[in-house]
Amino acid sequence: MESAHKEDDSSSSSNPFAALVDCLRAKWLTGKTRPMEYRRTQLEALGRFLEEKKSEILQALNADLRKPAFEGELADISLVMNEVNTALNNLEYWMADEHVNKNLATTFDSAFIRKDPYGVVLIISPFNYPFYLTLPPLVGAIAAGNCVIVKPSELSRCSAKLMAEVLPTYLDPDTFAVVTGGHEPTARLLENKFDYIFYTGNNTFGKMVMTAAAKHLTPLTLELGGKSPCYVDSCCDFQNAANRIAWTKFCNAGQTCNAPDYVICTADTRERLIPCLRQAIRCFYGCNPQESPDYGRIINDEHFRRVRALLDCGQVAIGGETDESDRYIAPTVLVNVKEGEPIMQQEILGPVLPIFTVAGLDEAIKYINSKDRPLAAYAFSCHRKVMNRVLACTSSGGFCGNDCLMHSFLVSLPHGGIGCSGFGKYHGKFSFDTFTHQRGCLIRCMGLEVLNSVRYPPYTEKKLQMLKFGTDVRRWNPCTLL
Description:
The chain has helices at residues 18-29, 36-52, 54-65, 69-95, 135-143, 157-170, 183-190, 203-215, 238-250, 267-285, 301-309, 361-369, 384-393, 429-434, 449-452, 461-471; strands spanning 98-99, 110-117, 120-124, 147-151, 176-178, 196-200, 220-223, 229-232, 262-265, 315-318, 322-323, 328-329, 332-335, 352-357, 376-380, 398-401, 422-423, 436-443. It has 482 residues and is of the alpha/beta class. The chain has 2 domains: 10-224 and 427-437, Aldehyde Dehydrogenase, Chain A, domain 1 (3-Layer(aba) Sandwich); 229-411, Aldehyde Dehydrogenase, Chain A, domain 2, CATH 3.40.309.10.
């Protein structure tokens, strides 16, 4: 295919991905991705991929992360299918022009928001949920009418290989491509001009993505991580809280970006919570979690060593066993951790849960607010006023009370970070909106020039007052309570 776009940068001729990006842009300029039926066809094909390749997807997840089929089917298949079905159910409504209110001066005109695709978009995804963190943004990009390049993580090799080899047999290769490889290919890919970039991953590489996007003034979404706090109140059902915290923290061997990164509570609450956490872990994974078919593994040796080093912080209250040959780290709870230790300074992304003690709720809120704003905040309490206090007095990408992660299961809620945990939202319609340029449009009547004459010179006070009368926005209720 002959390129319809040439990069201004002379280095583009040597960039290994320049031709691919140019071909996709040329195809996008033909308008192929814009019709609703084309978008439906691609979304339905993605749904067939999830259904027909379910076994291969689960095998790839198991090979990469020893992920249990239960967790793989729930997150990487079922939740993604929810995104596909939501888009298919609502696509016509999402795509429709949105007519807006008009002022007196534009009474006879048509004012609306047109939902335009950006063009050629890039989706870069991480290793921990290879399909769940790749395909929902892809759903939004396709639904919005874009051409897409997907770059899965090289760390989840089997999952990336499956996407690279099989997804293009379902989706239109004229408008969709998968690029594989490590850091160097990703850096070269980012040298190209995209119309939107969606990145999920760590903060360090997120800054590199943002720098690359800035070169071309490319808009982007960053889905990062951070240290999501979990406040446990002295008044709660401790076993229920422990069950929910343990499942969300230790599923996928702790490699979940919005899992609770640490529990924050009083010393008395900690002493009541630890036995319940021990009971939950034993109930979930047995006396030896390494033998449990329901417990995953760390993605690679480097991450294993990184997480294992965090066990030197504080004191081990539960777990702590490791096996490097198996990349196994037991579900672990640490106590007596200090604020300056690495476990409280970096995102853990592993099955290690530190419990940080404070004097009470006020100190917990003060500590949370002294740190970067996290991807999620959690609170457990039988008192709604405590829950509301944590919600009102902290800031985070998302919030869930008396549970963890479950807010991410709702396609009706936006998912995304704030501050250092990222910016931009997706899931459901939020994914469509992310990959859509909302184009403000006004189409005016060609006649009635007498109405326009009030804005033409020569200017007079009477013309100004008439124009202001036709364009001013007035308060509905100007009364102010003192």
